[in-house]
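Work package 3, deliverable 3.1, input record:
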Amino acid sequence: MNRHRSKLVLLASLVAAGGLSFLQPYISPYYFQIIIYIGINIILASSLNLINGFAGQFSLGHAGFMAIGAYTASVITTAMNLQPGTTLAIPMFLLALLCGGLIASIFGLLVGIPSLRLKGDYLAITTLGFGEIIRVIIQNLDFLGAARGFTGIAKLADFFWVYAFVAVLIFLIYNLIHSTYGKGFMAVRDDEIASEAVGINVTHYKVVAFVTGAFFAGIAGGLYAHFVTYINPSQFGFLRSFEIVVMVVVGGMGSIGGVIVAAILLTILPEALRAIAQYRMVIYSLLLIIIMLARPQGLFGGGISIKRFLKQNPEQT
Amino acid sequence: MSILSLQNCSIKFGGLVAVSDLCLEIEADDLLGLIGPNGAGKTTVFNFITGVYQPTSGRVVFNGKDLAGLKPHQISALGIARTFQNIRLFPSLTVYETVQVALRKNIRYGFMQAVVRPNSLFQQEREINETIKEILNFFGLLPYQREMATALPYGIQRRVEIVRALATKPRLLLLDEPAAGMNPAEKNELMGLIGQVREHYRCAVFLIEHDMKVVMGICERIAVLDYGIKIAEGIPREIQNNPKVVEAYLGEKA
Ligand SMILES: Nc1ncnc2c1ncn2[C@@H]1O[C@H](COP(=O)(O)OP(=O)(O)OP(=O)(O)O)[C@@H](O)[C@H]1O
Ligand SMILES: [Mg+2]
């Protein structure tokens, strides 16, 4: 294991993010927005990859965690009346993001608990239900703007912060899965009974995956809210979760690089295909089916086969 | 003192009594065989020793400790390791990583350190790496370390599974039909391997096996299970000549 390489890469990425953020005035707002969405989608897809790809717990509720992070952070910055450019803006914004991440990870814990008992399709349906429940609850909470949405969020997220979190998350996942500790995620994904038999605490790994994945989805939500400045519950519905799942499946479950590339491609694709934007979900569904049939290990072949999720591990020893 | 003691263990699946009132003692340096016709309940015995199932009644005592209510990973930590009748390797892990997973309990760091990588982590990872190399080398698996474990020939997969179990440093090793599906040459290799294991790891071995040549060749004692009931126990020669055992295997009902 190379001792300092991953830390140097992280440092270099942060410096690069800082440097590149000065280019913002020279980029058209439209392209700039796409670049920000790419970063946010990389965070969403990579954090879901930790749950779905590395720990093997098929979750369809990622937008729910995103929503929790988005609303929590927005409530905090709005209550404090933070304005961009003031001295307190950056530290308090980061604090709000972290709170969003933490609350999301508490929900990650709550959703992770059924994953200890439920497998495969049952877990997928439970997490899907969770995401929808979150959306419906927000839709009915007046202090969050209910269905009208939450307006007047300060524009605090910029290129640097989005890509700083991208770098931190990739650093985290990379280090995690290259450690002896982290190999436990893959073992749990591959075979729970065999994992337990060699002393792996399956419960621990599933819960850690859900909590960590939810945390970063919450951060992504907070960043998103403070970039678009207006959020409403319909932005965090099932279709959002589905989009993130497609990114992970297309990129290859358990492939760090593949999922990043897929997040980039699938953010640009709908923009490029503006004319047929109303068929986006149809395209995504077709894409999912094609990948499952033709490239089950992801577009770049670096992940584990999605087919493994469709058939259950034998329970019988 | 015996390392494992099964005291009147029974287990029911619905109406089926898979194992009934089983008593068995294994000494710390034993090589005990467990035989019996298909469906006799042999694998079920392993499953309740390792915590996959809880016995419906009776006690499993390992090293003086009652295992009731413990999870499989806790039982593994106490020093019981096993292999599976239908090999269960990790399909996405290499041979090296397979052994690495089994060494998980050797590390003293958690999630946070894995992410921020303090210096102490590198020290521990280096030790793990050395241990893996040592184990793989000892069992002749070093040439396969980068191969996916499930892509290897059957005999080698069996070996990897045994090595994975041994990497947890067990005091009792449970082998569920390790010779199944092996050719005669592989079976001989396996018998050599089990001998090596006992010498080098000094653990007790509890072995389920259908192949009589293997069982009679290496076991010091044999217990026989039929319809969940222990019908005989003794040295191989006694077992071979026991009329009840012969009857169970021929399926004759008197
Ligand atoms: N989880 C379970 N649920 C219901 N019945 C079970 C379960 N596990 C085992 N059985 C039943 O218990 C009995 C004993 O099964 P077991 O697998 O222990 O037999 P075995 O002696 O290992 O047989 P074989 O030589 O074929 O491996 C069988 O009738 C089996 O169908
Ligand atoms: Mg069996």
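The two ends of chain A are 35 Å apart (CA to CA).
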